[in-house]
Amino acid sequence: MKTIFAIIALLFFALPAKASQTQSETFLMAQSAYDAGRYAEAATLYSGLASNGIDNVELHYNLANAQFKNGNLPEAVLHYRKAWYKAPRDPDINANLHFALNAAGAVEPGRSVFERLFNLLPQNEWVTIAAGGYILITLLLAFGMLLPPTKRTLFRTSLVFAVLALTALGGWWHWQKLNSNPEWVVVTPGATTFYGPIEGSTAHYKIPLAALVRQCSTNPKGWIEVEYDGKRGWLKKGTIKRIYP
Amino acid sequence: MKLETRHEVRLARSDGSVAANLKPLVAVLGIFLCTGAFAADVRMSIEPQLISLLDRAVLKIEFIDTKGDAVDIPNIEGLRIQYQGQSSETRIVNMKRTSKIIHNYVVTPTKVGDFTIGPVTCKYKGGQKEVSAQLRVIKPEDDKEAQQISKIMFSRISTEREKPYVHEPFNLNMKVYIRDGVQTDGNFSLRGGIPETGMEGELQWEITAKEREERNGVIFNVYTLGTSARTLTAGIFTFRPEVQLNVVVPRQKRRPYGFNDPFFGDFFGRQETRPIVLDCNTLEVEVQPVPIERRPDTFTGGVGTFDFDVSIGPEQVKAGEPITVKMKISGKGNINQITPPTIKANHNLKLYEAHTLPSKNPNEVLFEQVVIPTSDSVTNIPAITFSYFNTQTADFRTITNGPFPVSVEAMPQQAAQVIATIPSSIRQETEILGRDIVYLKSIPKKWKKTDDTPWQRNRFFQILLALPLLLLAAIAGITAHQNRLASNVALARRQKAPRAARHSTQLAEQALRKGNETAFNEALWNALTNYFGHRLNLAPGEVTLQKVLDRVPTEAESLEKLFNTIEQHRYGLNSGGSSQEEMKALLQQLNTTLRKCERMKL
Questions:
Q1: What ipTM was predicted for this assembly?
Q2: Exposure winner among A134, A176, B382, B463, fewest CB in 10 A?
Q3: DSSP symbols for B338-377
């Protein structure tokens, strides 16, 4: 019996702790390699963690830095963007992503007023606000019904939370759209969009290496209609790499 | 249009209702729609079927009364076929409706001859069909423009370095000649014609010059495009890139093809652009290998012409303190492929790995290496040698810098000093990074996995989200019910009726158990009057047999019996003479009757 408990304890506590320790060691080794200017080695170590399923903002950001220093601009932009999805307000990520896109000569994704508003918070924070707003609305309405003298005041107050919750739902939907219209990074130099999803179609416009494009639609023959700098065109799937999910 | 006209005539003639007139029309339309659904077909057409070299044709694949995707047309030597997009068309002629999805392709010939486009398989909903089209391309004698196109516009590729070495960058120049007067949209695209293997990276062409040049008495606008190429292997590399440009052609000079030619950007415009692929010469470059003979040990891969500078600092240190050696290699060649020159190992010198520093000058590379003298016996940093292959003189050259004198003082706690000073160099690098990208982030407190379910997608959270809404709905229901009862006395009393009756029957049961017949009869009477008083919304004194029977005629017999029996027992006709069984039976009858009444709609 004691042996069984020991095995269970090992499985639940010791093994995850050991794995966590290994991950931390690899992370620090990668940092040392980066500091020593061995960017390729740093990128390999960080990539190893990412391919093992680690999904921290810090990992994607550091991996992007290593890739940038190693001259692999598309991978750098890809991981900066991945980090940005999780922490869109992080000034370091924003600065480096901006820097990398500038280095690539790529246009930053167009940001309307709504997009700028919804990009202030990541999806989970919008969900928190929406859920909080919704709970507060229901509580205020419930109290309003139970306490008729305060009904009007409480109902009016609930309207404020309703606006907040609706805005938060908009924010959630903004991020949710990444599932149907994901972003891609151009990984092939001189990628050219075409007017139609067909070989021999007329060339439309060129997209710089490491530019961020947004998927509009797909074609079963391996073509993807993308939007870049307000223009739409078709790209072969092999020329771009998907960022999310 | 014809359909509308007939409809108007019918309306004008009719003096009946509009609906009556529309009925046959709807029926006819239905028949047409049904007929159309069975007329699916695919056709391929090309217009015109006879063109000259300077012209182009429009190929159409029409999906009639059906839908289909664009089709990949196989490559045909001598024809360039470009997909232009799709359009749709719906026609109603003689009460017959036809809809089409048309996929348009522009066919540009590059040589004369008879061509068959297809057969290609077009799949549509419900079937597939093989279609093909014929095109003849001629070079008529009177079409001088077509004959002379290669004299009007052409391109020439050249290089200044005919026999470069492996890894040595060499320039390729492409001159595009366009006769003065020929209008282009200013865009060039270079495609193909570059060796597929052995080249290092993609060629990035840039327009480097624009000038005018006279050739055989004709003035040409000459655009010079330049790029730098580098090979990974030796051998003969053949370059013949295709330059495509868009020429603006006055429309009235070419043949009209019809208004629905998708190539025309502007329906009413007088100009059109059309892509032309220019003739180009073939350039063969013989790339030589870097010789192995006489290759010095200090050769680190440099091919080109370079300078080498070394500086060290500080020159006065204590044993265990670092000295930074900075090496700069500048010049023309494969600068990015050069590995750092090595410092000769010495047991009194601790050498750290050299690393590359960022440089703004693309023609130079900077290396930095930390060297720590571990003893005060060190008097200099050894000479550093850099060897490279000089492509101008075709031999290896060696440049030596140093030795560099240094003054090293003895230091008792050497190890502690070494450890303390190394981070300072790292900090310096961190500052350099701060000017471009922001430095790394520190180790996260907790590791997250990609397959971790976000809390907002947790099933428990999603179920919990429903609770406030359910609570609100319950409170709303209760409040609404209470409000209804408050405003509707009849309903409130109706709901009270069973409870009031139950209370009285419980009292009757107690009286029965005690054998108190008077209290029993009183309780039964109260049960009847309370129930029907509430149920029929009557005042206490208004509950009479007649009023109850008026509202509950179906139970008249049992109610009459109950009322009469209880009343007789209460007022003495049979008082004191009932047995327990009779009382029980009476109570049972009361309960049964009230239950029946409870189920009735009154």
A1: 0.83
A2: B463
A3: PPPPPPPPBTTEEEPPPEEEP-S-TTEEEEEEEEEE-STT
